[in-house]
Write a structure and sequence with these properties.
This protein has one domain: D-tyrosyl-tRNA(Tyr) deacylase (D-tyrosyl-trna(Tyr) Deacylase, Chain: A), CATH 3.50.80.10. Helix content is 19%, strand content 37%. The chain is built from 2 helices and 8 strands, in the order βββαβββαββ. Strands 1, 2, 3, 6, 7 and 8 form a 6-stranded mixed sheet that branches. The chain is globular, with a radius of gyration of 15 Å. The two termini are 24 Å apart.
Length: 154
């Protein structure tokens, strides 16, 4: 699984012009699921998301998590995070999970965030969505659950 995490002053998602999820200060998270991903991938990403220290402390250093600052999380499914573009100019989505697995692991990720004590809003899985946010910093972090099993270099 992959998550693009953006520290946000605020964020919202619309479906058919209607706001379906909205947050104030917190994180806007775009989540993609790959073929072969497991519930352990969702658990890993949720724990990392909840504990990622990307909010400033009293000295202005990124040293506080979304939980520590009382922030909220807006989670939006985005299968295009697994776009393959090495051949040609039209992306292939062969690595993206099928909709059933994608939905199950997306929902597992959201449930894990809720279990971490976070206020979570969501988009609508599989829908065409308009996502708005003010990226604070800007701070954008890419997490990949493959990192949990990949050996460290150097």
């Amino acid at each position: 699984m992959r998550a693009v995490i953006q520290r946000a002053a605020w964020g919202r998602v619309r479906v058919d012009g209607e706001v379906v999820g909205e947050i104030g200060r917190g994180l806007v998270v775009l989540v993609g699921v790959r073929r072969g991903d497991l519930p352990e991938d969702a658990a890993y990403l949720a724990k990392k998301t909840a504990n990622l220290r990307i909010f400033p402390d009293q000295e202005g250093k990124m040293n506080r998590s979304v939980r520590e600052v009382g922030g909220e999380v807006l989670v939006v499914s985005q299968f295009t995070l697994y776009a393959e573009t090495r051949k040609g100019n039209r992306p292939s989505f062969a690595q993206a999970a099928d909709p059933d697995l994608g939905r199950r692991l997306y929902e597992a990720y959201v449930e894990r965030l809720l279990g971490e004590g976070l206020h979570v809003e969501t988009g609508v899985f599989g829908a065409m969505m308009e996502v708005e946010l003010v990226n604070d910093g800007p701070v954008t972090i890419l997490l990949d659950s493959a990192d949990r099993t990949r050996p460290r270099r150097g």
